């Protein structure tokens, strides 16, 4: 990592692209009652990830486990109203979230082909599409490890 905190090739921070619908949907905690609120909670958790990197228990490659990271959260459907916060850019998909993620990854790697880029999703089809572009993939637990279904009081 360089002195200014930017790691990766060319001094650029590694890029983390998060499939909001897939990550939020990975835990049956009632997210379907408030999709925008669930995406906002994920966004807020990602602000910490942007500063510190991923926790090393999520199966992500080690170079993403230290911060800072550039974080892009791709939202779709009812979550399109979610806005960014410091450290987390939110990109709203007009149509398919998967297509928008592929576009974000393709654009980033076209600008900097050697850039470290990790996509967080469990979607097999999306994983195949982004790895074909040169990105790496990891599952939702990398960014949402402590999430579990609500417990009874």
Architecture overview:
The protein has 153 residues and is of the alpha/beta class. Helix content is 31%, strand content 15%. It contains 4 helices and 5 strands. Strands 3-2-1-4-5 form a 5-stranded parallel β-sheet, with helices on both faces. The chain starts with 14 loop residues before the first strand and ends in a 15-residue tail after the last strand. 42% of the residues are buried. Residues 1-6 and 147-153 have low confidence and may be disordered.
Attribute tags:
4 helices; 153 residues; globular; disordered C terminus
Write the layout of secondary structure elements.
Layout: E1 15-19, H1 20-24, H2 35-52, E2 70-75, E3 88-92, H3 97-111, E4 117-120, H4 124-133, E5 136-138
Helix pairs in contact: 3-4
Low-confidence stretches: 1-6, 147-153
Share of helical residues: 25-40%
Helix-strand pattern, N to C?
EHHEEHEHE
Annotation field: number of helices: 4
Query: Strands across the major sheet, in which order?
Result: 3-2-1-4-5
Number of strands: 5
Strand composition percent: 15-25%
Radius of gyration from the CA trace?
15 Å
Instruction: Please state the average pLDDT score.
Output: 86
Main pleated-sheet profile? 5 strands, parallel
Task: Report the principal-axis shape.
Answer: globular
Class per helix and strand makeup:
alpha/beta
State the end-to-end distance. Answer: 45 Å
């Amino acid at each position: 990592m360089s002195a200014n905190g930017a790691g990766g090739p060319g001094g650029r921070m590694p890029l983390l692209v998060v499939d909001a619908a897939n990550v939020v949907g990975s835990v049956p905690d009632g997210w379907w009652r408030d999709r925008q609120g669930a995406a906002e909670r994920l966004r807020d958790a990602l602000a910490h990830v942007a500063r510190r990197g991923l926790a090393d228990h999520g199966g992500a490659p080690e170079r993403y486990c230290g911060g800072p990271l550039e974080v892009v959260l791709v939202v779709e459907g009812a979550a399109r109203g979610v806005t960014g916060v410091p450290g987390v850019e939110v990109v709203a998909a007009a149509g398919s979230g998967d297509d928008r993620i592929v576009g974000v990854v393709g654009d980033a790697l076209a600008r900097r082909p050697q850039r470290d880029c990790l996509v967080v999703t469990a979607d097999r089809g999306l994983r195949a599409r982004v790895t074909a572009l040169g990105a790496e993939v990891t599952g939702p637990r990398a960014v949402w490890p402590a999430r579990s279904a609500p417990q009874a009081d």
